[in-house]
Design brief:
The structure holds 2 protein chains of 2 kinds. By secondary structure, chain A is an all-alpha fold. In chain A, 87% of the residues lie in helices and 0% in strands. By secondary structure, chain B is mainly alpha-helical. Chain B has 6 helices and no strands. The chains are: A mainly alpha, B mainly alpha. Chains A and B meet through helix 1 and helix 2 of A and helix 2, helix 5 and helix 6 of B.
Chain lengths: 109, 154
């Protein structure tokens, strides 16, 4: 059996897309839940300021913490995305490995 | 020898074998690794620090409008948690391809300093504690979420 580059590329792409599609809903659910919580907390800080429970200086410090929390969630989403891409690349590499090994007739990769 | 002779007599087959060998050279040891592996110590230390924060917030909630709510009564928490987060940061920094986690821990450390400044200004009200608890929970969840995802992909 010889290597069919077009078929191999197509199979690798299918594996890549499939792996990414598997991971994406999980990341999306997390991003949605955290966005809601962060927005609610932002509103809570504004309410505390308007009611006079905290002053301008305290509100600034609360916002700093809130901003850091938002940034941390975004970093997690970025990291989860990278892991999903990594797994998708490896799924495509598995297809390549299987195809090459089959074409050669022995386990080379 | 006979096999080499047969290959030399068939150029297409020869090209195919050379091409495959190049693939092998190109791909061997080339499994994609974009993010560091899971680190059990980071997971455990962050979980432990989260527990200390939860205890701190729950305790503060019972102390609003009481003399115990003042910063001076909670200095030990700030000192101990600062030591813990520095230790987590050092370990995370020593791990290759761990930039996102290192940055997350840096943000947590920064937020702890800000929390300390807030507490030094005055006792924290119930509303403030709710807000802070929510922010810190988001940060701890984000760090652990990423760390556990590394475990699944390892």
């Amino acid at each position: 059996m010889s290597l069919d580059v077009a078929e191999l590329a197509e199979n690798m792409l299918t594996a890549f897309k499939g792996s990414l599609a598997d991971k994406w809903p999980e990341i999306k659910t997390y991003a949605e839940a955290e966005s809601k919580k962060l927005a609610e907390n932002f509103l809570m800080i504004e309410t505390l300021k308007r009611s006079g429970e905290i002053n301008e200086a305290q509100a600034k410090l609360h916002h700093e913490i809130q901003r850091n929390a938002t940034r941390s969630v975004l970093l997690a989403i970025e990291g989860l995305g990278l892991i999903a891409v990594e797994e998708a690349i490896n799924a495509a590499m598995d297809v390549l490995r299987d195809t090459v090994n089959t074409a050669l007739g022995f386990s080379l990769l | 020898m006979a096999m080499i002779r047969r290959l030399l007599c068939k150029p297409n087959r020869w090209i195919s074998v050379v091409g495959s060998c190049l693939f092998v050279l190109l791909l061997s040891g080339c499994m994609a690794s974009l993010v560091s592996d899971y680190d059990e110590n980071t997971d455990r230390a962050v979980t432990e620090l989260h527990k200390e924060f939860e205890t701190f917030f729950v305790t503060l909630k019972t102390q609003t409008d009481q003399p115990d709510c003042h910063y001076d009564n909670h200095k030990t928490f700030y000192i101990e948690s600062a030591v813990s987060v520095s230790s987590i940061e050092i370990r995370a920094s020593a791990i290759d391809k761990n930039e996102k986690t290192v940055e997350q821990i840096g943000l947590l450390k920064q937020s702890m300093n800000t929390l300390q400044q807030l507490h030094e200004l005055s006792c924290l009200s119930e509303g403030q504690i709710e807000s802070l608890q929510s922010s810190f929970n988001s940060m701890f969840t984000a760090i652990l979420r990423l760390e556990l995802a590394k475990k699944r992909s390892s």
